[in-house]
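Thread: Newbie trying to understand structure tokens

Hi all, I'm a second-year student working on a class project, and my supervisor (Dr. K.) asked me to get a predicted structure for one chain before our next meeting. I've only ever worked with sequences, so writing a 3D structure as a token string is new to me. If someone could post the tokens and maybe explain what I'm looking at, I'd be very grateful. Here's the chain:
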Amino acid sequence: MSSLLEQLQWRYATKKMDVSKTVPQDKVDRIVEAARWAPSSSGLQPYELVVVSSADVRARIRAVANDQSQITDCSHLLVFAAWNNYTTERINHMFDLHVNARGGTNEGWENYRNMLLKSYPARDAQVNFEHAARQAYIGLGACLIAAASEQVDSTPMEGFQPAAVDEILNLTARGLRSVALLPLGYRLSAPRLNLLGSRAEPQPSPEPATDHQALVPFEPSAPAPISQEVQLAWLKMVQHV
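---
Reply by user tm_fold:
Sure, no problem. This is what the structure looks like when written as tokens:
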């Protein structure tokens, strides 16, 4: 496929997957890799991925996910699990990874770290979880696009019992809560709808409320290089089940 838009036009939320087909591991790895490189608030990447290929485990998850067939008919099931809270240890761990990647720190960076350490852990745990979950959805979006680029079908899902999935995957003991599922596989047949005709038409842009010519352009300095090894470590763990 020649363009990102063509890839997005090809994909759809697949309802029927071909149980006889398996997604090659190198494709799964590249899709997961997209989540590793996805942006997140303050660079904390407060979520982890569980890659479920076990048929038995997927069957147990299907039982608490409204019996959605894609969960067992897919090749691999990605479970996005957000941190249940922001803690001093978690924030420091991620900031230390940044420091190691850049070969040092500076006053501004440490001031930012201290600001987060003072504000995030003091907030209500549910508020922090909801914030972390929103970051996980950014990773979910990256995986959806990556899957389309690999010609792999996917179906983002929220229709499941999070507490039950947490128990099946032992997420609570690791300080995690499941927020979204993403089955990966291959469509059993072509979609029946004309997908291009099912999207809302773009609306004309309103007149700008600001005189953009009066704005001073922002010219960011070039970021320091980041080693691939450290970048991949920012998403702390990808667990395979």
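A couple of things are worth pointing out once you decode it. The radius of gyration is 20 Å. Strands lie at 47-52, 76-83, 153-154, 176-185, 238-240. Feel free to ask follow-ups in this thread.
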